[in-house]
Amino acid sequence: MTTATRVFVARLAGIAVFDPNGDQVGRVRDVLARARTDGQPCRVIGIIAEIPAVRRIFIPMGRVTAMDADAVVLSTGTISLRRFEKRPGELLVLEELLDRRVDLPDGRYGTVVDIGMERERAGDWMLNRVAVREHTGRLTRRGHIQQLSWGDVPDLIGVPEEQGTASLLATMDNMRAADVANVLQDLDETRRFAVAAAFNDERLADVLQELPEHDQVEILTALDKERAADVLEEMDPDDAADLLHELPRSDQAELLGLMEPDEAHPVRQLLAYLPGTAGSLMTSEPIVLTPDATVAEALARIREPQLPPAVAAQVFVCRSPMQTPTGKYLGVAHFQSLLREPPAELVGGIVDNDIDPLSPDITMPEITRRMATYNLVAMPVVDDAGRLVGAVTVDDLLDHLLPRDWRDRGHD
């Protein structure tokens, strides 16, 4: 791997950080510099790396032996796993500089889309280039991008009069929702709300599901009610119900009233169950097939890419109707069983019904015991009439077994 002498910081976002043995340590989330207000280039003091789903850590630039747009490689030695906390006089390049509105030398203005850093002969990395998109004043035309020297943008450091979100959002395009949630928690409140509001409804719904409950509530209530209802429609019904549980009843009713009836119906059903029961934990949208469906049809359903792995691990076989609550529940066909059967075989002939399903009012300790006993990743939930009303998956269970603040970035 060759070491570049000039790197644009936004292109580093999300790339892997490796130790000398080739093992991945984490991913780059930002670059830390020593802030200056005299117009001179800022010295880069390190990178901020994300240990997956745990914390951000600081890695000094002296530990970086190679760096380009594909990877960062570290030298030998120990790495401090202490949670990164920014100190006075320090500057997070992506978080604080991207999307700032700045004045250009020709009297116009533009928006910062990237920051370039360059290695000097002495070995120090300095922030010395600023990529700025010119403002055109036309909605249909994107402005030309200029590369300016650091000194040409004297108002870059300091409290911005205006800071957008487009460039920061671009660094998150290929990030998992859980990683984006971690980034949002590290932003200040104003920036967090602005970035969250800039996501489309589907992306925001995915990210909200990965945030701590208090952050979910703060972001949702910062949206106008119509937009909040649209986002709730994009969430999984069980996650939407969990979020609505945190709101006052008057807000619950208003948001449910603004949702499309077909989207609100399963959420209302889940809200009716007592917290901590199978009914409140379950997803109301498992894969359901009738007994005359073929193995080929079942395999096609579990291959749908948007399905979580735990939901796609089996299909539940029921009499019509197929929407929950279904007709009579007959059993489950696990994907391993499906793989062993001819494609034309009917799923009704290979169902497993030896394990009693859960009732909606069964409590979490009993659910945990039964899923652990039978080594299952999901169990059906069946009402007194024998209808399938949902399924509890292992990820549903873990969300509620872990401490309430397990998603909180301030929690170790």
UniProtKB/TrEMBL annotation:
InterPro entries, per database record: CBS_dom, CBS_dom_sf, Mg_transptr_MgtE_intracell_dom, MgtE_N_sf, MgtE_transporter, PRC_barrel-like_sf, SH3_actinomycetes
Signal sequence residues: none
Top-level lineage group: Bacteria
Residue ranges crossing the lipid bilayer per the database entry: none
Name under which the protein is recorded: CBS domain-containing protein
Keyword Nucleotide-binding: no
PANTHER family in the record: MAGNESIUM TRANSPORTER MGTE
GO cellular component, one term: membrane
SUPFAM superfamilies attached to this UniProt entry: CBS-domain pair, MgtE N-terminal domain-like, PRC-barrel domain
Species the sequence originates in: Longispora fulva
